[in-house]
Design brief:
The chain has helices at residues 4-15, 38-50, 86-95, 147-156, 200-208; strands at 19-24, 54-61, 64-66, 69-81, 97-98, 101-116, 122-134, 163-164, 167-168, 174-183, 188-197, 216-227, 230-242. It has 243 residues and is of the alpha+beta class. Strands 1, 2, 3, 4, 5, 6, 7, 10, 11, 12 and 13 form an eleven-stranded antiparallel beta sheet that branches. A two-stranded antiparallel ribbon has the order 8-9. Mean pLDDT is 86; it is low at 1-30.
Length: 243
């Protein structure tokens, strides 16, 4: 099982040569955008505000150019609560097609943190890679991100923990602490996720709720642990899908 830190380091090292500039979108519209991406920057700023994302940071590559196509690799990092809404955010991102520009998400990593909002919601850290493709054929750029499969997991298991203020939450049987979605070289999509569940029966029931969306699902690590003085099972899961 690869750990989240290893995955993020590899992603950063692979993409680093192409990343050339960074921008904190909280200062938009004072952020300088490449002329091709001015409309996309404004859209992303409004979209992330609507989803109550904070500390949104952009890193944009120099474009890869091929004929009329200019393709920008973009790294986006931000904080948000209720990360199960990330699938709706991705859907709106990929629906964007304006000024000959299309947005396509290629990987997502979600990590829980020890921080909570004033209303008690857990704060999660989200990292995302996307391609911003500027081309006259923007409306024909293929969508491949497995949003439906990610939605099926996040419908069953959210990131809100089953213990709050040292009290067990009886309505939460399972929760996640990390989720990674990334494409491999053969165009398959790999999911890696970790979390906690009340017992094995609850894990089996939760898995049945999303397994039909995947080619395979497995749990390489399942251990009994103590979480805030309560017994739980900690799991590491992997799944894959061909899209």
């Amino acid at each position: 099982m690869r750990c989240i830190n290893w995955m993020i380091v590899v992603l950063v090292l692979v993409m680093l040569p192409r990343i050339s500039s960074a921008a904190d979108l909280s200062s938009y519209p004072n952020v300088e955008a490449p002329p091709d991406l001015e409309a996309a920057y404004g859209f992303i700023y409004d979209l992330f505000n609507r989803f109550e994302a904070s500390k949104v940071n952009f890193k944009v590559s120099k474009p890869f150019e091929l004929g009329a196509l200019r393709d920008y690799l973009v790294e986006i990092n931000f904080l948000m609560c209720e990360p199960e809404k990330i699938t709706s955010l991705i859907d709106e991102m990929e629906n964007f097609c304006e000024s000959d520009t299309a947005l396509r998400v290629t990987s997502v990593a979600i990590l829980s943190s020890a921080d909570v909002r004033q209303d008690g919601k857990i704060v999660t850290k989200v990292g995302m890679y996307a391609h911003f493709s500027h081309t006259p054929a923007a409306d024909e750029v293929k969508r491949t991100f497995p949003n439906d499969a990610l939605t099926s997991i996040l419908t069953v298991a959210k990131f809100e923990p089953g213990v709050k203020n040292l009290r067990r939450q009886d309505d939460i049987n399972i929760w996640l602490s990390k989720m990674i979605v990334i494409a491999n070289k053969t165009s398959n999509w790999n999911f890696e996720f970790s979390g906690y569940v009340k017992n094995i029966d609850a894990l089996k029931a939760s898995t049945e709720g999303f397994s039909s969306n995947f080619s395979d699902v497995a749990f390489p690590t399942v251990n009994e642990v103590t979480y805030s003085k309560y017994p739980f099972i900690r799991f590491d899961g992997i799944a894959s899908i061909v899209k």
